[in-house]
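Quick start: what a row looks like.
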Amino acid sequence: MVDEDRGSPAAAVFDALGSDYEEAFAASEAHRASLAWLLERLPPAARVLDMGSGTGRPTAATLTAAGHRVLGADVSPVMVEIASRQVPDAEFRCGDVRDMPFEDGSFDAVCLYFALLQMSRAEQSGLLHRLVRVLRPGGLFVLATVPLDVEDFDGVFMGQSVRVTSFAAQDMVGLVRDAGLTVLSERSVLFTPARPDATPEPQLFLHCRREATAPAD
């Protein structure tokens, strides 16, 4: 299912990157380890929401291969087309993840890998609260981000101009706790994308569980 949303700056960036993004980050051991953490704890045939699903690899591909039902969502039509082709056993939707309708308590797990960085701090907080609500009580939430204390920072990512907003690591931990998540483990790594011009970037992986009742907005 593809709904055009080419007015989004994030859509323009990832439309341009396409499969190059997957190739640059394919060697991430921390991402694979995060998925292994999730797979060890999911019930059989779990329903998983993969927000910012990109090319579908490794997240959706790993989860569907293990027998789980995956719904991927991404703002980039190009990424959704690639993911639909590469991971045909998953369902993918294109649109703004902040506006997509999902029923409360309808997923066993949510994956949110590096999908927050082009949103404002208020938008990031609002999306986290909303995604916690779509988890069933006790559901799992895995998140990765680049933990820098920056707001509206103009930079270049893989040759594309981007405006980035993020939180320092402990502020991000506080944000997910405020959204109603218990942080079960966290891991900080330095990762260098497979690009000639790449430099090491800090990455934070959080593995969480939803409390019995999510806080109100």
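That is the whole record. Confidence is low (pLDDT under 50) at residues 1-6. The beta strands are 47-51, 69-74, 91-94, 107-113, 135-145, 153-157, 160-164, 181-191, 201-210.
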